[in-house]
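Quick illustration, no need to memorize.
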Amino acid sequence: MKDKRVLVTGGAGFLGYHLAQNLPRYGASFVAMNDIAPFFADEYPKDYLLAQIDVRDKDAMYHLIHDNKIDLIIHCAAALPLWPREEIMSTNIAGLRNTLEQARNCNVERVIFISSTAVYGVPDKHPLVENDPLVGVGAYGESKIAGEQVCAEFRAKGMCVPVIRPKTFIGTARLGVFQILYDWVDSGKRIPIIGKGENLYQLLEVTDLIEAIYLASMAPKESANDIFNVGAQRFEKVKLDVGALCNFAGNGARVMPTPVALVKPALAIFEFLKISPLYKWVYGTADKDSYVSTEKIEKKLGWKSKNSNQDALIGSHKWYLEHKEELSHQKAGVTHRTGWDQGILKLFKRFL
């Protein structure tokens, strides 16, 4: 990214926030960020352009890219799984297409699309590689598959559009569903896991994801213009990774296995009744192996992860402990930078 003029879409989100903190050390000469959500300006470098612009707005996106002479776009903008289906499909497909169209109109060198390993659904085969079948779970997974198809269209037109499929990524300021885990651990509770926790579930520390984005931005077109899995290269069974977090807390929190046959149907009912924040992608994969091969990005771009699952969980939890007082006054939301309403889960927490 050295000397490049960069636009980050979805800049007010979790990944956008971390890109804002890290882009200066990668040498970006100018940074613009856009989002439909409001920015907290004090969280971003003062010389950044913060624009409240919808990625679906053709004229606004054209002028944002053209007038600021953007060289590189990192497309993070996405409606998340708790959003209404129509909003997810519109933002994640039409918004991406519009961004690519305006980038092409402005002769942007490269657009990096942040996809998701949700495109694989809940497969039986592991590790997952980039040419495995795509079977998205729910509107979010479906929209990411469709988004990748849009990227392929623009690659066929001669654009360089690297696609990155990250595993669930966490780090400082990551809340959402992980805020529920951190709250329970901090309370010294038994931490229910679906099943016995013998499965392998790969995570990703956000700074390792940013390193992958950087490499995709700088590699020659013939290497970068491809699809890449990204996930921690060191991860253990769920019971061990969550257990390490409980041990770090040192307050009696401990892993509690639960019966899959009872818990999953109950969570499905709670989701249908809209009294639980846990959606199908979360509880549907929680007792399954879920990990990807990173061999392709290692060989083609030279990427390696610095953090294990446990590093990522403990580092994120430390941030939560440092900020839990201010977070207690925050309204519940539906993004990764806000805590989610625990709903009926609060009731269960009382008895564990």
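The two ends are 48 Å apart (CA to CA).
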